[in-house]
Structure formats: structure tokens, C-alpha cells
Amino acid sequence: MATITAPATASAVAEATTHCPYCALQCGTRLTRAEGRTTVAPTQFPVNQGGLCQKGWTAPALLDTPGRLTQPLVRGADGRLAPATWDAALDLIADRLARIRAEHGPDAVGVFGGGGLTNEKAYQLGKFARIALGTGQIDYNGRFCMSSAAAAGSAAFGLDRGLPFPVTDLADADVVLLAGANPAETMPPLMRHLASPSLIVIDPRRTPTAETAALHLQPTPGTDLALALGLLHLAVTEGHTDREYVEQRTTGFDAAWRRAAAWWPERVERVTGVPVADMREAVALLAGARRAYVLTGRGAEQHSKGTDTVAAFINLALALGLPGREGSGYGCLTGQGNGQGGREHGQKADQLPGYRMLTDPAAREHVAAVWGVEPDSLPGPGRSAYELLDALGTDGGPRALLVFGSNPVVSAPRADRIAARLASLDLLVVADFVPSETAELADVVLPVTQWAEEEGTMTNLEGRVLRRRRLLAPPGAARSDLEVLRGLAVRLGQDPGRFPAAPREVFEELRRASRGGRADYSGISYERLDAGEALHWPCPATPEGAAPHPGTPRLFLDAFAHPDGLARFAEVEHRDAAETPDARFPLYATTGRVLAQYQSGAQTRRVPELAAAAPGAHVEIHPDTAGRLGLAEGAAARVTSARGSTVARVRLVDSLRTDTVFLPFHFARAGRANLITSAALDPRSRMPEFKVCAVRVEPLDAADTADAADAFEGAGR
Fold first, then answer.
1. Cα–Cα distance for residue pair 634/299, rounded to 1 Å
2. String of DSSP letters for 267-310
3. Which of 1, 30, 163, 576 shows the greatest Cβ crowding within 10 Å of its Cβ?
4. What are phi and psi for residue 464, nearest 5 degrees?
5. Cα four-point dihedral sign 381, 384, 385, 389
């Protein structure tokens, strides 16, 4: 399993067994570098079983992508970014950070991380923020991805792990309900495990996943919570509840049922548009299955009521007796590559390593002891991701921001406002390996390593900890994020030993910091991973002389993680989205991914094959709706909400609801879907409402050539 490296000559061959840099499946791959070219082949890793998607097959193109950042850039007096040495760049950053902190306090500096960072980077970033900077103002882009499911899962089960069972268990299911998930495009190899079960897909669009389903429920955007309440109503009233399970393994059913009792099927149909017969069939399929799963994705979660929506689907799963039973259960399809590990080790505003809560005195004491500081010196919880970005440059908000592994100019809601907030800062530092749209605004850009140029660990959607292995040296002067953090920490007065740059050394400290936490990695080591062991957390350390803990591939089989061992039903009620259509903005808009692109597109838009497959922003619209609006296939259109407008090519889709349009969020500049999205936040998870806003769509003015060029000709930049 280890990397096999030959001497670095023109004819040398190097190989590494590692994992894809994209989604949370973390498909197994083998990379080969020969004659200056890298090729990839899939391995028989359990989640992909010898398959890869289009993004995985083309991933090596990232390693030689034109425009790769290879040396630090500093913005000069002329306003342009110009090459600089590492010492000059780091000295400048440290000096300006020190001045800002001295003038405005430690919380005047913010840190924004990413769900694609390795466990070691996520851990070190949180430690750097809280010790070297002394700031509580740290969060990450996973807040835009998994936070609602994390909040609901933690409340229900006492622990949040995307899939509390191995991916491979899904293949033996009889029925799988997918609420707001489109894995056929977002993580295609997962469909290998969903080929046998009958699928129930809940999605306003007839996606490629829905095309494979036995049953497709197509609700009005923003009404998933009402639908879930209706499904629970039917499960109870039609005698499908597992009474013994509910009595022995759960609590809170009566309060949850009092809410669902008011959502009789006909009422749900009026609100959601889903026929009663389809709802009844969905419940019958789930209840009649010997092995069944309920899975949620971003479509259910990215709402101002996302936590309650996920909780409602968990209620359904609990009523049917699915979670904590081998062969059945509830899970969430985590999105980003390290979306699971990235939220476990301290780069989230309210958390410390091991999935400990920052407000827990015992957690603060444990982590502070590992870090060699006093518990009282650790700052309290800071702002959530959108609130942090929205506060930049304002009175009481951060005056400086360090960004690692994220591109909020494209990925954040109200994207124009966030770009303006970033531009208002006294100091913006971006560490990336490509010149993203956020890096283009920075005062200092730091070139860092990417996936095949570094060692480390990732944690996939099933809680399995994986080894990322280095194939080749980074180009030019690029350094690892760990080296960047160490260089800054030392310049800010920290002992060099407190911030090691070797991933293995950082992981050893992460093990100690996570020990005893909900996400306990203390029994996991590089040696065990390199030996090929499949280790799912929690995997606690064992006493000396005892057999190592085997890890926990299946959670909750004996008890849930609450002190009493019981799962919690949630008392939830449907409410409208923060914004619904009106005379001015008569259509629903929803956003999501397409097969050939990933996240903000900063990486995939630079891969020629992917750019050719999905070359620019488009808007899906029903032909009848388009006809009324004077729009034709391929025409340029402007999509406008109360916050702004974006430009996209029309794509006619006759399976779409006539009241709904869909835009992918991967594109930049005038084609950014997040120019129109709402920043209404879930009160518990602080997730923005990406999945529904009110818009109008109209032909793009023929004279408006600048926006068209920016959205289309510049799509691949």
C-alpha cells in the first residue's frame, strides 16, 4: 500500500496508492507518474469497487494544470499581485496580523477553512486560530454542506457520522429512500451499491438518480419537511410503526406524533404537490422491506429549516425501527472530500478536536492540556461561516481573514455582498494551489500543495479513516498548509515545536486530542492504516498489551450515544421557506451540482474534458414556462432574485416542474448561481437556504454583451 518511488529522472516511474481528491466517497486509486505524465487507475476499494466517475478519471490533469500557483504573490502599491519570496510574504502577513490584533483585538482576525483539507490540516488550522491568533472567529465551508444533518443527527443519536454503517451495506437493502440526493451525478460510484434496492427519490427535479427510481416524489421546493411529516403520519395511521422498537430504543415519540398528526395526506398533497397515492406507496415500500435505509442529502438540508427537515426524516426512520439495526438505518450522504473529518477536529466555530464542544469545560480542559495552554485561554465559539463572511470589515467584525481550501466568492450565498466584504478587509490571505476567484481579491496568495503532493489522512462519508499518499514533489516553491501555519505561528511568537509541519507528527497529536471524544481517533495510526486495516471511528486506544480496537464500522447496534442509550424523536413543524414566489419573482429557483463539475469549480473548470462536458452556467426550465417567457433552448437568460441576478444559457427540461428552475453553482463571475441565493439561516445549524429562492427569468438584453462574455466565454477560467 505504500508509495513506491523511483529516482526523479526523466525516465523514472513513481506510483502511489491513494484516494480521489473530490467527493466524500474517497474512491480508491492508483497513480502512476512516468515521463512527466500522471495516469490514474481505480482500485478495488470497497466504496468504488474498481470504478471511477468522470472527475476521478481526469483528476491527474489538476497536477499539471496551467496557471498553477508556484510562488507567493503579494499585492503591490500598483494594485497588482507580484511574485515574492516566502520570507517576505510570511513576514508581511505576520506583521500586519500583529498590528491588527494590537489595534482591534484577537477577534479582528478570522480564519475560513475547507471540507477538503486533510484531518491534519483541519486540526492544525483550529489550533492555530485559537492559540497563535487567539481568535474564536474560525469556521469553514462545511457549514454550507453538512451542518443541518450534523445538528439533527447529533440531537437524535448523540453522535454525528454521515453513514453510521459501511457503504457496502446499501447493496443488500430492499428499499432505499433518497431525500434530496442525486448520487448519479454527485458521486456516481455510489450507484453501484444502489443498483439492487428499489429507490424512492424525493427531488423537485427528475434527476438521473430519479430516472432509476421505482418511485419519484417531486415536491414543491422548500416543502420537504411537510412531506416528511406526511410520511410519518401515514406510517402511524396505516399501522407500519415498529411499536416494540419505539418503546425500547427511543424517546419523544408522542410529542413528534402530535405534530405529524395534523399533517394528514390530503393536506400534505396541497402543500407539496405530491399525490397521496405516491406518499402511501413510499411508506408501504419502506415498511414492507426487510432491510431499508433513509438517506438525506443537500436537497433536504440546505434550507432555513434544514435541521428540522432532516429530523423529520429521522423521525420516519425511527418510527419504522431502522436506525441501529444491522441491514437498515438512517444516514446522510456527506459531500466534500473530507466533509466528515473536516468537521471533527476543530475548524468549526463551536468545536474542538474529537468532535468536542467548545463550551464544554471538560473538553476545553482536555484539549488545552494536549496543547500545553490554560483552558481559560481558549476563546469561545465564534461566528458561523456566513455570519463570519458577512461581518468582514464591519464594526466589530474581523479586519483580516485567512482562507484555506475554500472559494467563498463563488460558494457563499449573496456572493456579490461577500465579495464586497472580502474586498473591504485590511488583509486578505488565501492559500490555494490555483488562482481561485477568492485568490484574485487577496493581498497575499500562498501556493500550497494538492492531493498527490502530500501525505495525510482523510475520513470518508462512512467514518473510515484513509491514507492520502504522496506521488510527486510540489512544483516551484509551493509548500504544504502545515508548513504555512508553522511559519506564521513562529513569526507570531509561538514555539516551533507547538506547530509541527510533518503530517504524521500532527496526526499523533490529533490522536491524543481526540481521545475520549465522540470522534475518537486515538487507536488509529499511520502504521495500522498503511498495513491495510479498515478503521472506522470511534476507534479508541487500548491499554498496553491489549489487542488494538478494531474500529466501529456500524454504530448504535447496542445503544445510541445518548447517556440513556435511547434515540430521540424530534418535535418539528413545517414552515414556509424564507422566500416564496410572488408577482415580481414568480418562480422557485433551486441550485445543485452537475456530473462534470465540483463545488465552486475552481479545480474542475480547469480540466479540459470537464469544461467541455459542462462549459458554463445554464438554467433548466420547463418548455411551457420558457415559452411564456420568450426563451428558447440555448438562449442567454437573466435570472433575478431580490438580491441580484445571474446569467445562464437556457436548457429546456420537460420533466421539471413548471414553477421551478434549476441552476448549477459551479460557475464564476456573472454566471454565479449564488448571486441570487438567500442567506436566510437555519436557527440551529446556521445553514444558508441555498435550495430555494424566488426569481424571475427573462431573455438577456442583446446589448448586454459584457455579462454574457463574463458568464460564458470566461466560464473555464
1. 26
2. HHHHHH---HHHHHHHHHHHHH-SSEEEEE-HHHHSSTTHHHHH
3. 163
4. -90, 125
5. negative
At 393, list the grid cell: 470589515
Beta bridge partners of 650: 619
9: amino acid identity, one letter = T
One-letter amino acid identity for 101?
A: R
Please say whether the beta carbons of 47 and 165 come within 8 A. no
Q: What local confidence, expressed as pLDDT, does residue 2 receive?
A: 38
Instruction: Please report, as a single letter, which amino acid is at residue 212.
Output: T
CA distances from 120 to 30, 448, 483, 485, 486 (A): 22, 15, 12, 12, 13
CB 660 within 8 A of CB 590: yes
For 554-623, give the secondary structure using H, E and C: CCCCCCCCCCCCCEECCCCCCCCCCCCCCCCCCEEEEEECCCCCCCCCCCHHHCHHHHHHCCCCEEEECH
* Grid cell digits, residue 237: 395511521
Distance between CA atoms of 529 and 507, rounded to whole angstroms?
A: 12
Q: Is the pTM of this model over 0.90?
A: yes
Q: CA 480, CA 88: separation in Å to the nearest integer?
A: 17
What is the C-alpha separation between 91 and 173, in angstroms, rounded?
57
CA angle 453, 458, 462 (to 5 degrees): 150
On whether the CB atoms of residues 588 and 660 are closer than 8 A, the answer is yes
Q: What is the pLDDT of residue 431?
A: 98
Mean of pLDDT over the chain? 96
Picking from 205, 204, 209, the residue whose alpha carbon sits closest to that of residue 222 is 204
- Taking the C-alpha atoms of residue 31 and residue 28, their distance in angstroms, rounded to an integer, is 10
C-alpha cell at 323: 436506525
State the pLDDT confidence band at 713, using cuts at 50, 70 and 90: low
Q: Would you say how long the chain is, in residues?
A: 717
What is the torsional sign of CA 669, 428, 132, 446? positive
Residue 11's pLDDT is: 54
Least confident of 234-238, 334-338, 553-557: 334-338
Over range 80-87, report the average pLDDT. 98
CA angle (494, 495, 498) in 5-degree steps: 95
> How far apart, in Å, do the first and last CA atoms of the chain sit?
36
Q: Supply φ then ψ for residue 388, to 5 degrees.
A: -65, -50
Closest CA to 478 of 499, 451, 460: 451
Q: Which residues contact 632 (CB under 8 A, 6 or more apart)?
A: 626, 650
Q: Which amino acid is at 485?
A: L
Bridge partners, residue 663, by sequence: 591
Q: Is pLDDT at 6 greater than 70 in this prediction?
A: no
Identify whether 538 is preceded by a cis peptide bond (ω within 30 of 0): yes
- List pLDDT tens digits, range 402-420: 999 999 999 999 999 999 9
Distance CA 107, CA 91 (A): 20
The string of DSSP letters for 361-409 reads HHHHHHHHHHHTS-GGGS------HHHHHHHTTSTTS-SEEEEES--HH
> What backbone phi and psi angles, to 5 degrees, belong to 135?
-105, 145
pLDDT for the residue numbered 637: 98
Q: What is the DSSP letter of 198?
A: E
Nearest to 646 by CA among 664, 621, 627, 625: 664
* 3-state SS track over 437-491: CCHHHCCEEEEECCHHHCCEEEECCCCEEEEECCCCCCCCCCECHHHHHHHHHHH
Residue burial 9-44, b: 16+ Cβ < 10 Å; e: rest: eeeeebbbbbbbbbbbbbbbbebbbeeeebebebbe
Q: Which of 600, 665, 611, 657 minimizes the C-alpha distance to 639?
A: 665
